Amino acid sequence: MTYLVKEIFYTLQGEGAHSGRPAVFCRFSRCNLWTGHEKDRARAVCRFCDTDFVGIDGPGGGRFATPAELADAVEAAWPTLGKARRFVVCTGGEPLLQLDEVAVQTLHERGFEVAVETNGTRVPPPGIDWLCVSPKVGAELVVESGDELKFVYPQEGVNPARFEHLDFRSFRLQPLDDHNLDDNTKAAISYCLANPRWSLSLQTHKYLGTR
Ligand SMILES: C[S@@+](CC[C@H](N)C(=O)[O-])C[C@H]1O[C@@H](n2cnc3c(N)ncnc32)[C@H](O)[C@@H]1O
Ligand SMILES: Nc1nc2[nH]cc(C(=O)O)c2c(=O)[nH]1
Ligand code: SF4
Ligand SMILES: [Mg+2]
Questions:
Q1: Is the Cβ atom of 148 under 6 angstroms away from ligand 1?
Q2: Pocket test for ligand 1, best of 26, 174, 185 (most atoms within 8 A of CB)
Q3: 150 lines ligand 1 (CB under 6 A)
Q4: Residues involved in catalysis
Q5: How much is the pTM?
Q6: Over the stretch 36-94, which tens digit does the pLDDT of each residue have?
Q7: Would you say the CB of residue 51 lies under 6 angstroms from ligand 1?
Q8: Burial track 22-60 (b if 16+ CB lie within 10 A, e otherwise)
Q9: How much is the average pLDDT of 188-204?
């Protein structure tokens, strides 16, 4: 398995339950719901993506021929020696197009707790320590259990209540970052207050100016 990675960087997890926790981000190239090219956005399944995941040309990105090479690159981004409490967030693009069981195992051997941010359309490999699923309107959701369900809100025609029967430890609304971010944030706050199964997830890195 060759892994195509857009970028690898060290920062604070900005979103969800681990918000504020230092993490290496491993952003895999490619997604099954959008090509990543602006010319295709209007006809993509997922049209609101805030991320450049095309190619392997970002900081720390590249083509890694083995799980060990991938883990070497992730490990190189961690700031201290010693294997205690290391944390990697595998994202993308859609990480589950590439992340496999042996990669997860190899990251574990290097001391990393492995978190994944996924659109929920691909079955995850075993061993993931923190699975965050972010369903997209118009894409089939095949992952029905995990740690965190993080719904970008609003999405046309979808009431978040539709996900409440699924097997997740927490349910979060993340305001859609588009030209209506302020209104979307107010709407997400109102929804959480009226439906307390749901908590707010802010993209804190966008407010803090971190990556
Ligand atoms: C770029 S995606 C990559 C991982 C995976 N493809 C997914 O969609 O979950 C990372 C997270 O950002 C969220 N996201 C993407 N664009 C967003 C936007 N414009 N506003 C708010 N959240 C967004 C996604 O829903 C997901 O939770
Ligand atoms: N700081 C920071 N936190 C994040 N949490 C999820 C992200 C993502 O793009 O998947 C992300 C990101 O891009 N930056
Ligand atoms: S599924 Fe995730 S990576 Fe793919 S286009 Fe949507 S937000 Fe971006
Ligand atoms: Mg992001």
A1: no
A2: 174
A3: yes
A4: 25, 31, 46, 49-51, 117, 205
A5: 0.99
A6: 999 999 999 999 999 999 999 999 999 999 999 999 999 999 999 999 999 999 999 99
A7: yes
A8: ebbbbbbbbbbbbebeeeeeeebebbebeeebbebebeb
A9: 98
Distance CA 179, CA 136 (A): 19
**ipTM (interface pTM):** 0.99
Residue range 123-179, pLDDT digits in tens: 999 999 999 999 999 999 999 999 999 999 999 999 999 999 999 999 999 999 999
Question: Which ligand lies nearest the alpha carbon of 58?
Answer: 2
Kindly tell me the burial class for residue 11, based on how many C-beta atoms sit within 10 Å of its own C-beta (0-12, 13-18, 19 or more). middle
Ligand nearest to the CA of 176: 1
Pairing relation of β-strands 62-64 and 3-12? antiparallel
Give all domains of the chain, ordered by start, each with its CATH number. Answer: 3-148 (3.20.20.70)
